[in-house]
């Protein structure tokens, strides 16, 4: 009798095999013949739209001329190759390491250092619609300028864009018209005042295509010694996996011109020969 039950158990294991794993089945489907070197533009939609934002977490260093800050840089885009049907799989989202996927090459153009430093390379949220959200924690360093009216106030600019793609291949847009400070930890010396953001495009004498970028302006004020402040000791709150886009409505300074009054998109008037950057970089695709 014992041998009979052993035989039945062996038959059950043989028939059932390894357990079904829904996430593995989805990955087998969406990553089959997936080429991460290929930009996810299609014939119907050749331009990949990338939403970009800045979450300010903490000011690490600031001497009035240079700002070093800990940030999250939420990025969202769509890759139709990574979509799956809920009719077959009862799972609407999963995560993957970013090095398995095509990701936008968004960089901080005006950093005085060679590149921004990532604390680590986080996984990417992938939704069944093919939309992706990525929240890389990044330590950024950027230059600041003092106010001509108030010597305790500084303006720190951050200019982000694709390093290699022009606007017809990759169009960067704002997810919000200000810097997110929901998880910001107060600094003892510098008070966060406000921020603005706008989108613009750069034209180069060498090339007919426009190169879009987004600009953020963070205003800080040096605290008076008599002022009190609260230092948050809590860890940042958990982040939402969905990014809401808000159109920018801010005016920009005199060196920009409105391309389309309904699109809130601006073009810089100055054109330069070659692909030279504002900071002197001459790498192909640099801005």
From TrEMBL:
UniProt keywords, alphabetically: Signal
Pfam families: Neur_chan_LBD (PF02931)
Domain Neurotransmitter-gated ion-channel ligand-binding: 23-223
Chain spans, region Disordered: 261-287
Domain of life: Eukaryota
Leader sequence residues: 1-17
GO MF term list: extracellular ligand-gated monoatomic ion channel activity; transmembrane signaling receptor activity
Cross-referenced InterPro entries: Neur_chan_lig-bd, Neur_chan_lig-bd_sf, Neur_channel
Polar residues bias spans: 264-287
Coiled-coil segments on the chain, per record: none
Keyword check for Cytoplasm: no
One Gene Ontology CC term in the entry: membrane
Membrane-crossing residue ranges in chain numbering: none
PANTHER family per record: NEUROTRANSMITTER GATED ION CHANNEL
Protein's UniProt name: Neurotransmitter-gated ion-channel ligand-binding domain-containing protein
């Amino acid at each position: 009798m014992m041998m009979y039950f052993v035989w039945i158990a062996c038959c059950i294991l043989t028939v059932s095999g390894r357990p079904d794993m829904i996430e593995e089945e989805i990955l087998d489907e969406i990553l089959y013949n997936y080429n991460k070197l290929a930009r996810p533009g299609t014939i119907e939609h050749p331009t990949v739209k990338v939403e970009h934002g800045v979450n300010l977490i903490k000011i690490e260093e600031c001497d009035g001329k240079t700002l070093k800050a800990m940030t999250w840089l939420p990025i969202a885009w769509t890759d139709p190759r990574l979509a799956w049907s809920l009719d077959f799989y009862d799972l609407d989202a999963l995560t993957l390491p970013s090095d398995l996927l095509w990701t936008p090459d968004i960089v901080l153009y005006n950093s005085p250092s060679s590149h921004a430093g990532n604390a680590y390379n986080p996984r990417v949220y992938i939704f069944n619609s093919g939309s992706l959200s990525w929240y890389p924690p990044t330590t950024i360093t950027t230059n600041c300028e003092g106010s001509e009216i108030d010597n305790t106030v500084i303006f720190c600019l951050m200019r982000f864009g694709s390093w290699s793609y022009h606007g017809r291949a990759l169009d960067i847009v704002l997810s919000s018209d200000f810097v997110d400070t929901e998880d910001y930890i107060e600094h003892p010396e510098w008070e966060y005042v406000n921020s603005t953001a706008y989108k613009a495009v750069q034209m180069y004498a060498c090339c007919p295509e426009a190169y879009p970028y987004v600009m953020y302006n963070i205003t800080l004020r040096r605290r008076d010694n008599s002022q009190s402040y609260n230092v948050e000791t809590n860890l940042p709150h958990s982040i939402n996996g969905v990014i809401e886009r808000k159109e920018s409505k801010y005016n920009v300074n005199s060196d920009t011109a409105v391309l389309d009054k309904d699109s809130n998109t601006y073009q810089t008037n100055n054109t330069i020969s070659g692909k030279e950057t504002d900071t002197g970089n001459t790498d192909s695709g640099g801005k």
